[in-house]
Backbone:
């Protein structure tokens, strides 16, 4: 009997061939347990880096924040699919603005969430998210596939800190918790000279 080898989406031995889908189904039916074995041990150097900058204005009487400029830069190694990478960053930045400015889970004294629906849990709509200028560093990762690094949602990480720093610069006050809602900003600024 010949050794089995993997060919595209089938396992082959001599003239015998079975698709991976059929092999998996037969294995499940026979009571076999499948697990994946890791083949790649990537260096932590393959992580992506993201930075975000914000210019904003604050209405001191209402606590309203207006984003004047939003800029994001990412080092994700070689840019393989620019449109998809831009979309990932736009989505992550929108989530970051939600985290920083609107999203707030509220719980009652018994620990039950009192705003579990989208009606009263404010995630940003497209109209709420300012345009962000996005830049990609022209780098090549020697470890990652095709010179790329992971992208995913890592662009969310610098958004709230950028908003917090811009808010502190605009008001001279550091706000200790998210989200930076108008009522929280007004309450803190009302006692400032």
Residues:
């Amino acid at each position: 009997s010949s050794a089995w080898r993997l060919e595209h989406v089938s396992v082959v031995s001599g003239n015998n061939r079975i698709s991976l889908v059929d092999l998996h189904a037969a294995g499940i039916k026979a009571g076999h347990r499948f697990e994946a074995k890791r083949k790649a041990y990537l260096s932590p150097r393959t992580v992506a880096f993201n930075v975000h900058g914000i210019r904003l204005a604050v209405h001191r009487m209402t606590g309203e924040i207006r984003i004047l400029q939003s800029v994001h830069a990412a080092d994700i190694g070689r840019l393989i699919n620019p449109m998809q990478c831009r979309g990932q960053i736009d989505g992550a930045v929108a989530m970051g603005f939600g985290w920083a400015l609107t999203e707030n889970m509220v719980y009652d004294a018994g620990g039950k969430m009192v705003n579990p629906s989208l009606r009263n849990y404010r995630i940003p709509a497209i109209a709420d998210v300012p345009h962000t200028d996005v830049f990609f560093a022209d780098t090549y990762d020697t470890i990652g596939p095709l010179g790329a690094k992971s992208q995913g949602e890592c662009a969310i990480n610098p958004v709230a800190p950028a908003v917090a720093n811009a808010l502190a610069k605009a008001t001279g006050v550091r706000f200790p918790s998210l989200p930076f809602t108008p009522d929280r900003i007004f309450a803190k600024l009302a006692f400032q000279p």
Notes: The CA atoms of residues 42 and 143 lie 7 Å apart. Strands lie at 5-7, 10-13, 16-19, 49-58, 65-75, 133-136. The chain has four helices and six strands.
